[in-house]
Predict the 3D structure of the following.
Amino acid sequence: MNLLQIHIPHLMTTVAGGYGIGLNSTQLYTSYDVCVSKAGDIYIANKSNRRIQLWKVEATTGITIIGMTGITGTNATLLYGPSDVLLSANESFLYVSDNDNNRVQRYKLP
């Protein structure tokens, strides 16, 4: 059996985070899942920071759109362990699996 190995440098680019573990808007901590909008924006389930972050195309910082960094809770605006994110087909809703609260939340996007 012949194997062909091709090395193509520079195909990987960091598009979110990359500044170490932390709570800042440039940092992520135990990110479990991502989904990408048609425009290329990235929604990130940032489990240990208890938040969902939105990273716009070419952004150098994320925006916390759901939850509060480092704060757990059971009400509709707080998360305990966000692990999965999914955009609806028309991108008007974001579904979030909040593992440690044993629930799936639906959020209307602006």
Notes: The chain has a mean pLDDT of 91. DSSP finds no helices and seven strands in the chain. The domain at 31-108 is CATH 2.40.10.500 (Thrombin, subunit H). The CA atoms of residues 15 and 58 lie 7 Å apart.
